[in-house]
Write a structure and sequence with these properties.
Layout: E1 2-4, E2 7-9, H1 15-18, H2 27-37, H3 50-61, H4 66-83, H5 86-93, H6 107-110
Antiparallel strand pairs: 1-2
Helix pairs in contact: 2-3, 4-5
């Protein structure tokens, strides 16, 4: 297995798909990395040479990924909570932050539904 940014990249996947296993690299950034490093995006990870892997590792380290990105996101949410903004209050209460309705369909944020004591 190839390791990039501390993550095991699946050998059977195409390079552009395998790069997306890294937190912070999506489809467009993975394609951009493949273009700048001159690595064929449709080749399998197991078929890459060590030199190509080194070039990919160098290119990925230029971007904020994995632990640093997770820490940055957590600090941004903590800042919103500390200043008491509307989004921070929604994060603190465990409710949707981006304007979704909460009368129905907010079960992912709110957790499993609790039955009321007197429904009769």
């Amino acid at each position: 297995m190839a390791r990039i940014a501390g993550i095991n990249i699946p050998n059977h996947a195409h390079v552009v798909i395998g790069l997306q296993a890294i937190f912070g690299i999506g489809a467009s950034l993975a394609r951009k990395i493949c273009v700048t490093t001159n690595v064929n995006a449709t080749s399998k990870v197991k078929d890459l040479t060590e030199a190509e892997m080194d070039v990919l590792r160098d290119e990925v380290t230029k971007h904020t990924v994995e632990g640093d990105l997770r820490r940055e996101v957590a600090m941004n949410i903590k800042r919103l909570i500390d200043i008491g903004s509307y989004r921070g209050v929604r994060h603190r209460r465990g409710l949707p932050c981006h304007g979704q309705r909460t009368r129905t369909n907010a079960r992912t944020c709110k957790g499993p539904s609790r039955s009321t004591a007197s429904k009769k």
